[in-house]
Amino acid sequence: GLVGVRSPYGIPKNPVRDDLVPGGSSSGSAVAVSAGLVPLSLGTDTAGSGRVPAMLNNVVGLKPSLGLIPNTGLVPACRTLDCISVFSL
User: Fold this and answer.
1) 3-state secondary structure of 44
2) Do the Cβ atoms of 33 and 87 come closer than 8 Å?
3) Which residues pair with 25 in a beta bridge?
4) Which residue from 15, 40, 87, 89 has the highest number of Cβ atoms inside 10 Å of its Cβ?
5) Buried/exposed code over 23-55 (b: 16+ C-beta within 10 A; e: otherwise)
6) How many whole angstroms separate alpha carbon 74 and alpha carbon 69?
7) How far is CA 36 from the centre of its chain?
8) How far is CA 80 from each of CA 56, 62, 65, 76, 86, rounded to the nearest angstrom?
9) What's the rounded Cα separation, in Å, for the pair 55 and 61?
10) For residues 34 and 29, what is the distance between their CA atoms, to the nearest angstrom?
């Protein structure tokens, strides 16, 4: 979901502020970068699910132009809007 709290594996903890949700379906990727576990990670972005967690976890989230990065292997929510997103410090 858009706030990142609907995971069957538990809710990723926002490393920046305890009182904030991790934000978005790619929140685990943003949390991993923000916590310093990885230098960059991939997620998906349809309607902000890559950019919202980036903002809430104080990292950079990039939604490339549609078609710039191939969607091979991506299970789409919306084929015309989905793309691979990138998170980094």
Assistant:
1) strand
2) yes
3) none
4) 87
5) bbbbbbbbbbbbeeeeeebebbbbebbbbbbbe
6) 11
7) 15
8) 26, 18, 12, 9, 18
9) 7
10) 9
Question: What percent of the chain stands above pLDDT 90?
Answer: 55
State the pTM of this model: 0.87
**What residue type is 50 in one-letter code?**
G
pLDDT for 25-84, tens place per residue? Answer: 899 999 999 999 999 999 999 888 889 999 999 999 999 998 899 998 888 888 888 999
Segment (H or E) for 83: strand 83-88
What are the C-alpha distances in Å from 43 to residues 17, 29, 59? 21, 6, 13
